[in-house]
């Protein structure tokens, strides 16, 4: 068995991040992060409350029933002007 980690490239918007994580991606890559505030927003969108603002789906298995579970890889491509 090969130990691979599925990482999905998503856009900056909240629904794109939500959909990738609901499909059980273990990590996401977010391009066009422009500053510290954008990076913090990506983290909030990827984490369930109280650590973030990701929508909790209490009846969906892929969303771990709204519980923060396991590790998550967040890769952000930061643009420096």
Order of helices and strands: EHEHE
Which stretches are low in confidence, meaning pLDDT under 50 for 5 or more residues running?
none
User: How confident overall, as mean pLDDT?
Assistant: 83
| Structural domain tally | 1
Could you tell me the number of beta strands?
3
- The percent of residues in helical segments reads 10-25%
Q: Characterize the biggest β-sheet.
A: 3 strands, parallel
Describe the structure concisely.
The protein is of the alpha/beta class and 81 residues long.
Structure characterization notes:
By secondary structure, the chain is an alpha/beta fold. It has one domain (7-78). It contains two helices and three strands, in the order βαβαβ. The protein has helices at residues 14-22, 36-46, and strands at 7-9, 27-33, 73-78.
Q: Which features would summarize this protein structure in a list?
A:
81 residues; 3 strands; lyase; aldehyde-lyase activity; three-stranded parallel β-sheet; alpha/beta; Aldolase/citrate lyase family protein
Outline the secondary-structure elements.
Blueprint: E1 7-9, H1 14-22, E2 27-33, H2 36-46, E3 73-78
Parallel strand pairs: 1-2, 2-3
GO cellular component, one term: cytoplasm
GO molecular function, one term: aldehyde-lyase activity
Organism: Bacillus salipaludis
């Amino acid at each position: 068995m090969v130990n691979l980690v599925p990482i999905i490239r998503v856009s900056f918007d909240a629904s794109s991040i939500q959909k990738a994580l609901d499909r059980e991606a273990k990590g996401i890559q977010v391009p066009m992060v422009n500053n510290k505030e954008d990076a913090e927003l990506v983290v909030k969108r990827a984490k369930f409350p109280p650590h973030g603002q990701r929508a909790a789906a209490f009846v969906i298995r892929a969303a771990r029933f709204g519980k923060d579970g396991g590790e998550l890889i967040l890769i952000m491509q930061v643009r420096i002007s």
